[in-house]
Write a structure and sequence with these properties.
Distance between the termini: 40 Å
Number of strands: 4
Radius of gyration: 21 Å
Strand order of the largest sheet: 1-2
Helix content: 10-25%
Length: about 100
């Protein structure tokens, strides 16, 4: 039995994953996600054995990052604007903000 989950970072933590792995005896799990859960961004509640994508699915078999997609021509390059300073002008009531932009490649 092969079980494939898309968006596995959303659906395979907690009771559902536990029920599936208890019910099936001979299976392979494959989980696809664009936002894997690592120890640094894992929630603290719930089962301590099911907090990261690696705990639920094992080692990563393959990764394809946005940098790879841009290099391959599958995604257009983009810029990220980071707001570094924002001042409020009390007299006019308008906001004046400056942004620092840098290209992502």
């Amino acid at each position: 039995m092969v079980l494939i989950f898309d968006e596995c970072h959303r659906s395979q933590f907690g009771e559902m994953h536990t029920a599936i792995t208890k019910h099936f005896k001979n299976y392979h799990l494959f989980g696809f996600t664009g936002t894997p859960i690592f120890a640094v961004n894992a929630k603290t509640g719930g089962s301590p054995d099911l907090r990261t994508t690696g705990q639920a699915f094992g080692d990563c078999l393959h990764s394809y990052t946005v940098v790879d997609a841009i290099r391959d021509g599958n995604v257009l390059p983009f810029r990220i604007a980071t707001w570094t300073r924002c001042a409020v002008r009390k007299a006019s009531g308008t906001n004046r903000c400056t942004a620092s932009t840098r290209p992502r490649r």
